[in-house]
Design a protein that fits this description.
A hairpin with a 2-residue loop joins strand 2 (about 85-90) and strand 3. The strands form 2 sheets. Strands 4-5-6-7 form a 4-stranded antiparallel sheet, with no helix packed on it. Strands 1-2-3 form a 3-stranded antiparallel sheet, with no helix packed on it. By secondary structure, it is α+β, with helices and mostly antiparallel strands. It has one helix at about 1-20; strands at about 75-80, 85-90, 90-95, 100-105, 105-115, 120-125, 125-130. It contains 1 helix and 7 strands; from the N terminus they run αβββββββ.
């Protein structure tokens, strides 16, 4: 049995060397390339996914009216050992997390400062917005 196994391995090794010598080397005529326009959709994004609105960097966040408390809905708050989560406008958020709020054609950058029992404190510029938990 050992001799037969050794013979099969030897025959396969010789056949592999003979086959490797026959293989022709392939040369590429031209390499493919991929160029993407600045405003086109990335083909690696999942189907149906759309990027979020970009926050303005030019300082337009510092102008405009105050944001009303009614623009935010806090539907759930979870207070655990060392971790605090809140669902604000349908998104799961942690303390310190930033998100964009779009009102009309303006996008405001909001920071979730603190999550407390029954309310969250949001920040924009130098103002704090206290939003109570919506209870049914």
């Amino acid at each position: 049995m050992k001799k037969l196994t050794l013979l099969i391995i030897l025959v396969l090794a010789v056949a592999d060397r003979a086959h490797a010598g026959d293989a022709a080397h392939l040369e590429t005529k031209s390499k493919s390339s991929f160029q993407m326009d600045g405003n086109s959709r990335n083909p690696f994004w999942p189907i149906g996914w759309k990027p979020t609105a970009k926050l303005s960097e030019a300082g337009t966040d510092h102008i405009g009216p105050d944001i009303p408390v009614t623009a935010f809905v806090v539907s759930s708050i979870t207070l655990e050992q060392g971790t605090r989560f809140a669902i604000v406008n349908g998104k799961i958020m942690q303390e310190g997390q930033q998100f964009g709020l779009q009102l009309g054609n303006q996008t405001y950058q909001i920071t979730l400062k603190t999550i407390e029992d029954g309310r969250v404190i949001l920040g924009r510029r130098n103002e704090e917005i206290v939003v109570q938990l919506r209870r049914k």
